[in-house]
């Protein structure tokens, strides 16, 4: 969970010279970060505030 953020910061520091490769790597890390952390949090929030009926998963 926290490892993705560390990888993102490491990518910013290490790949700052190589713009294209860095941006692709950072984009990938950011997407993984949002997939694994932000989306479950929003889903849990939506479920909690829907009176137990749940909500369809939004991609």
Key attributes of the depicted protein:
single chain; 59 residues; mainly alpha; 2 helices; 73% helix; elongated
Please describe the biggest sheet, giving its number of strands, its sense, and whether it closes into a barrel. none
Mean pLDDT: 70
Shape: elongated
Strand portion: under 5%
- Model regions low in confidence, pLDDT < 50 over at least 5 residues: none
Domain tally:
1
Helix content: over 70%
Termini, distance in Å? 20 Å
Count of helix runs: 2
N-to-C SSE string, H for helix and E for strand: HH
Find the count of extended strands (DSSP E, 2+ residues).
Answer: 0
Radius of gyration, in Å, reads 16 Å
Structural class: mainly alpha
Describe this structure in words.
It is a single chain. By secondary structure, the protein is an all-alpha fold. It has one domain. The protein is 73% helix and 0% strand. The protein has 2 helices and no strands. Helix 1 (2-14) packs antiparallel against helix 2. The longest helix has 30 residues, at 19-48. The radius of gyration is 16 Å and the shape is elongated. It starts with a helix and ends in an 11-residue tail after the last helix.
